[in-house]
């Protein structure tokens, strides 16, 4: 971290320091647990959709953050799932969640939402 402070050696958020701390003693998380990539493609800024099947965690990894896109009035379809948790503009969890995910997937997410 001292080297990073002196000169930038990585640009990937918190992942590289965690990998150093754990010295490679990490394991992959099944994609059904962690729906990553909702921040879109870092190069093109495109939106991504959910992978098929149940989802436990919605992860807006990447540069596109739902709060920024919602504020800019240029959201990706799944960004609306973030709205209920926005401390400045949020509302209660609504039927919009059902519309975006479908009733079968929402049942799997209900304990997390």
TrEMBL record:
It is found in: Membrane. The keyword Signal does not apply. It is an enzyme of class 2 (transferase). Keywords: Glycosyltransferase, Signal-anchor, Transferase, Transmembrane. It comes from Linum tenue. It comes from the Eukaryota. GO terms for molecular function: glycosyltransferase activity. InterPro entries: Glyco_trans_8, Glycosyltrans_8_dom-fam, Nucleotide-diphossugar_trans. This is Hexosyltransferase. Gene3D superfamilies: Spore Coat Polysaccharide Biosynthesis Protein SpsA, Chain A. GO terms for cellular component: Golgi apparatus; membrane. The lineage of its organism: Eukaryota, Viridiplantae, Streptophyta, Embryophyta, Tracheophyta. Its main location: membrane. It is a single-pass type II membrane protein. Pathway: Glycan metabolism; pectin biosynthesis. Its EC number is 2.4.1.-. Belongs to the glycosyltransferase 8 family. Transmembrane segments: none annotated.
